Amino acid sequence: MLLRLGAGIALISLGMNGFYGALEEPIIFARYLVAVAGGIFLIAGLWTPVTGVLMALDGLWAASSLPFSTRGGHWIYVLLAVMCASLAMLGPGAWSLDARRFGRKRFDSDRTRGRKLSP
């Protein structure tokens, strides 16, 4: 939940800050709109694996398209891409719309549970 919340808030914040300077260029405006929508979807836990992959690709695209004069400004997008890729692999979690719609999927890593071990 916290990883989803952190990535979603960061995406919404970066997207909303970019709206103000991007009203004249439709492609850049669309990129910021996708970031805000992806942040909302991640916070809600809606289509988390697909949204996580798309936001990871968006973060890598933003990191590679930034001018290098922004002293380390592209690293926030790299970190955001890693967080979104992690969310795509981990899944939505218990408190999400995906868990309510499709059911909670739980994987137990303890393979000895339920079996009697012989001495």
Task: Produce the secondary structure layout.
Elements: H1 2-19, H2 26-44, H3 48-65, H4 75-90, H5 97-102
Helix pairs in contact: 1-2, 1-4, 2-3, 3-4
Brief summary of the model shown:
By secondary structure, this protein is mainly α. It is built from five helices and no strands.
Could you characterize the architecture of this molecule?
The chain has 119 residues and is mostly helical. It has one domain (2-99). Helices cover 65% and strands 0% of the residues. It contains five helices and no strands. The radius of gyration is 18 Å and the shape is elongated.
Q: Give the count of helical stretches.
A: 5
H/E element sequence: HHHHH
State Rg. Answer: 18 Å
Strand content: under 5%
Helix content: 55-70%
Approximate shape: elongated
Low-confidence stretches: none
Decide which structural class fits the backbone.
mainly alpha
Q: For the record, give the distance between the C-alpha atoms at the N and C termini, rounded to a whole number.
A: 41 Å
